[in-house]
Amino acid sequence: MIEAHGLRKTYGEFEAVKGIDVVVGRGEAFGFLGPNGAGKSSTMRMIAAVSPTSGGTLRILGRDPARDGSEIRARIGVCPQEDSLDTDLTVYENLVVYTRYFGFSRAHARAKADELLEFVKLTEKRNQMVDDLSGGMKRRLTIARSLVNNPEMLLLDEPTTGLDPQARHVVWDQLYRLKQMGVTLVLTTHYMDEAEQLCDRLVVMDDGRIVAEGAPHELIARYSTREVVELRMGVGENEAAAERVEDLGERVEVLPDRVLIYTADGEKAAEAAADRGLAPRSTLVRRSTLEDVFLRLTGRALDA
């Protein structure tokens, strides 16, 4: 579905994407994980055939986006980071009008709108104006709009940014159902739990480069430990606390609000820290996540 080699994107003298290699297979859920400014959105715009490449090679659905952009765009769906719904139209009219842009008949457009409203659970809101919807409902409508042309591949740029946890899980459920239907999903996110939940495979991007690639569980096993102990100390106490526990794990990280001990046995490490007289405000033992992978690879937290 996607094959990129040495892909680059520059804006004047600024290089946003610095020679990345990406291959995505049919039916796969593939993610670009990284902080804001990592180059994820620039990569997605090239994949969507709306932004020309600055170097390297790129094939989408086996086609050259520089030559076959229109054909590619007719076969993919795009859910942009910002909702761009028509606020002068109702929920139902947004879908009908957008479906007509692809050359479908009015009858087909109406039937497709009904089908998609049912899919994203907005049938009861069909006659409401867009401005009357909640943020989560607008996001679901934007996803529905990206499906009007029955795309083979769906591109989602930060699909749940700004949504509350309940709304995020509703969107995740819809994306999972699309994957079961055989739609290839390609998404960018800076939420590590979203990447773990949705992606079969992902790349971690930082500063326009790919710094790691693999399935979520593979990356965690490769770059982190089984468990992590979080010690939340008082203001100004983290550095001193880290020195006292640096031998209790494979490595220790100091963040502004906590000390992280990476170890195979979190309970044992937490007990050892207490035996040394440490009195953190709170102690948490958890499994490693993709955020720990990113911290290991880049030296900063994923939400930085």
UniProtKB/TrEMBL annotation:
Annotated ranges, domain ABC transporter: 2-232
The keyword ATP-binding is annotated on this UniProt entry: yes
Membrane topology: Peripheral membrane protein
Protein name stated in the entry: ABC transporter ATP-binding protein
GO BP term, example: response to antibiotic
Pfam family, one: ABC_tran
CC terms in the record's Gene Ontology section: plasma membrane
